[in-house]
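Tokens help. Our protein:
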Amino acid sequence: MKTTAPTKNKGFLGRILDRVADVAGFMSMAAVVFAMLVIVYEVIARYVFRWATVWEVEAAIMATIFVTFVGAVFSLKNNAHVTMDDIVLPHLKPKVRKWLGLITPILSLVFCVILAYKSWKMFWEAFSLGWKSETIWAPPLAIPYSFLAVGVSIMCLQLVGIIVGAAKSLRSGVENA
């Protein structure tokens, strides 16, 4: 399977966006390891030692939410998300591919801006009203909601960088400018 090269942001803000995406990827990797260790601990505590557990499943779920939304920024930066490269793009003219390279992130940005707005609104409600999970552990729901809001907001910034790169590429006539 052939994929396109990761988008390289240029300029000061582009380098900051790339660094933020790299940090998000590292943190997501750590969250996967954390979730795995928590689940292993729960299995050992519950089935070997017969200890009652309350927090492990929800902590693993929160880590998975973090990985899903914050880790998506790293995937987007490295062009590791699902694309149409193998199915549709080889059959299109280069000019059409370039236009799709601009239109697709614009549509993604529209979706992500709406999702970011709604997720920040949901986070603020959970934070200001003190919503808690309905489990025995009862952690604040603002925590997982913040993962969604922050991850999608950073993704919006990453998409802006991709759009700028695609627009430069289209204007200059060079692929992946």
Observations:
- DSSP finds four helices and no strands in the chain.
- The CA atoms of residues 129 and 142 lie 10 Å apart.
